[in-house]
Amino acid sequence: MKRIILLPLFLLLAISGYAHFAALAQSVPRDPVAGNAAGTPIVGVFSGADTSSAAATLTGVAGKTTYICGFSVSGLGATSATNVTATVATVGGVTMSFTYAFANGATALSTTLLIYFPMCLPNNTLGGNIVVTVPGAAGNTATQINAHGYVL
Asked: What is the 3-state secondary structure (H, E, C) of the chain?
């Protein structure tokens, strides 16, 4: 009898004890200076062949700061295996660099580069864009770049 009573009580405590963590993880950042206004989520996307260079842009808004929270690069390979340097510009006044590898063969699946920043990183100027750029590779037929962040 005790088990029947304790099980629903335990489940209720477990759910209520952890429910606030999910809510915090999905919350939109707020600006305490501007009357606690919520930030606006933004995305930048590129999808297509990448034989020279491709970019996904998080477009800034005048008078607001653009933040990047993460990005991914995926797609198919190239005529031959090629390593390139993907860049994120300009965050805190610098350009960040990451290595991305195009697989050997235009129909081979390349390993996804998936970057999540522990804290979303701001652009160095108000209203400025943040651009994720991936140099191309000969023979590539499909590359996807997805960046996400917010303006506040």
From this structure: CHHHHHHHHHHHHHHHHHHHHHHHHCCCCEECCCCCEECEEEEEEEEECCCCEEEEEECCCCCCCEEEEEEEEEEECECCCEEEEEEEEEECCEEEEEEEEECECCCCECCCEEEEEEEEEEECCCCCCEEEEEECCCCCCCEEEEEEEEEC
Read off the pLDDT of residues 53-93 as tens digits, 9 standing for 90 and up. Answer: 999 999 999 999 999 999 999 999 999 999 999 999 989 88
d(CA 128, CA 125): 5
Q: Does the pTM of the predicted model rise above 0.70?
A: yes
Complete domains list, the chain, with CATH? 31-151 (2.60.120.20)
pLDDT by residue (tens digit) across 27-48? 566 766 666 677 889 999 999 8
User: Cα(145)–Cα(45) distance, rounded to whole angstroms?
Assistant: 6
